[in-house]
């Protein structure tokens, strides 16, 4: 059994590595565009084929840089995922084994069970494989974003729609705003850190779920206890997608315990149900009597869920603005074109002012609704005191200019 708090925190290391990679990739793209722009107005008059050849050469250099960053991040991520999986497996079975021992059974330690170790290894490899898929698509998307941005700037300039400086400024601002996304087979998109967080949390839930159900089969155990937390996901119907409905209860794994509903009603093994997409619930062996998990009033839980969704939205907006501020700062530092530098600095000041307003709105929302400010959810890679100070200075410039 893993607590909701454990599942919330165990994935943070992997998310931080992915966030670092995303920040590095965005910076490299905007720096390359800024370097491309710094060659001067005469490049707008070159032949389109020469422009495209040079853009493709630059994109090749960019791709090399990104692959280097991915290689470094992957080495860190392999260690992070493995350590998190191992810790989660041991923690989950410690809880279950205490139940078995109280019943007079003698379960083997996790690392003395070849079958359970194989299950852990399988899930570790699957989660690491997802990370590999994300980074491959991110590398390709990064190169395509660079080429598309340069081509768009060229077309806008040669058509007379925008000046050379304006066109490249818009290209850089678009990259800073959108970042680089991961596209799932379904067509859904996420940033690489969001995708990593979801994959990590889901992978750990599934890994521990697999070894716990395998241990239950070994022990011939039928009763399962599911964890609970305030603000659990709600849905209109009493089904697997309605986490608030099935949380915090005892279940029968095989229907052998009279009076208990079947474990299958939780939707375990499906994306929408228990241990599915981004789920913070867990389960373990139960004795049918002692339940340390709370039952929450449905209206109270619904309100908490809605507030948490709003809080998460505000946090995402702040993180996105921080990424944009950092990307614009990278572009300002990289460009040698004074007109472009001035335009980008104006955008940087405006975005910094927006970030300041978002922080105030977040603090006020938490205060009004008596919510804990989750500063760790506002962090992004490479954003430290120096970056925060620069952003505050830029926000003051914008406010004074107004």
Query: How many separate domains make up the residues?
Result: 2
| Structural class by secondary-structure content | mainly alpha
Number of helical elements: 10
**Beta-strand share of residues:** under 5%
What does it look like?
This protein is mostly helical. It has two domains: 218 residues, no CATH class; 103 residues, no CATH class. Helices cover 66% and strands 4% of the residues. The protein is built from ten helices and five strands; from the N terminus they run H-H-H-H-H-E-E-H-E-H-E-E-H-H-H. The strands form two sheets. It has a three-stranded antiparallel beta sheet. A two-stranded antiparallel ribbon has the order 1-2. A hairpin with a 5-residue loop joins strand 1 and strand 2. The longest helix has 55 residues. The mean pLDDT is 87.
Topology:
Elements: H1 4-9, H2 12-37, H3 48-102, H4 114-158, H5 164-178, E1 181-183, E2 189-191, H6 192-219, E3 223-226, H7 243-246, E4 250-252, E5 283-285, H8 298-334, H9 338-368, H10 385-401
Antiparallel strand pairs: 1-2, 3-4, 3-5
Helix pairs in contact: 2-3, 2-4, 2-5, 2-6, 2-8, 3-4, 3-6, 4-5, 4-6, 5-8, 5-9, 8-9, 9-10
């Amino acid at each position: 059994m893993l607590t909701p708090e454990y599942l919330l925190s165990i994935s943070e290391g992997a998310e931080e590595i992915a966030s670092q990679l995303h920040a590095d990739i965005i910076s490299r793209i905007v720096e390359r565009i800024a370097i491309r722009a710094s060659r001067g107005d005469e490049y707008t008059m070159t032949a389109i084929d020469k422009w495209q050849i040079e853009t493709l050469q630059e994109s090749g250099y960019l791709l090399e840089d990104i692959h280097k960053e991915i290689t470094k991040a992957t080495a860190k991520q392999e260690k992070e995922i493995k350590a998190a999986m191992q810790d989660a497996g041991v923690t989950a079975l410690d809880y279950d084994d205490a139940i078995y021992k109280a019943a007079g059974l003698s379960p083997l330690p996790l690392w003395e069970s070849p079958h359970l170790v194989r299950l852990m290894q399988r899930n570790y490899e699957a989660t690491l494989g997802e990370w590999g898929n994300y980074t491959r698509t991110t590398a390709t998307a990064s190169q395509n974003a660079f080429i598309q941005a340069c081509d768009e700037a060229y077309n806008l300039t040669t058509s007379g729609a925008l000046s050379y400086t304006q066109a490249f400024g818009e290209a850089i601002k678009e990259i800073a705003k959108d970042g680089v996304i991961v596209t799932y087979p379904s067509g859904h998109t996420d940033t690489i850190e969001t995708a990593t967080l979801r994959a990590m949390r889901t992978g750990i839930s599934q890994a521990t779920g697999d070894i716990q159900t395998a241990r239950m089969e070994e022990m011939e155990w039928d009763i399962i206890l599911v964890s609970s937390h305030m603000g659990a996901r709600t849905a209109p119907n009493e089904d697997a997608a309605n986490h608030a409905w099935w949380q915090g209860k005892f279940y029968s794994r095989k229907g052998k315990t009279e009076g208990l509903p079947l474990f299958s009603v939780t939707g375990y093994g499906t994306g929408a149900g228990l241990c599915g997409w981004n789920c913070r619930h867990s389960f373990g062996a139960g004795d049918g009597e002692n339940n340390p998990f709370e039952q929450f009033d449905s209206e109270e839980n619904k309100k908490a869920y809605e507030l948490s969704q709003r809080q998460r939205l505000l946090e995402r907006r702040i993180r996105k603005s921080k990424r944009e501020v950092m990307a614009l700062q990278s572009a300002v530092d990289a460009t040698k074109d004074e007109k472009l530098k001035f335009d980008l600095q104006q955008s940087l000041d405006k975005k910094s002012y927006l970030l300041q307003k978002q922080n105030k709105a977040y603090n006020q929302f938490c205060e009004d609704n008596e919510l804990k400010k989750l500063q760790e959810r506002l962090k992004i890679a490479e954003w430290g005191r120096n970056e925060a100070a620069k952003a505050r200075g830029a926000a003051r410039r914008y406010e004074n200019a107004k």
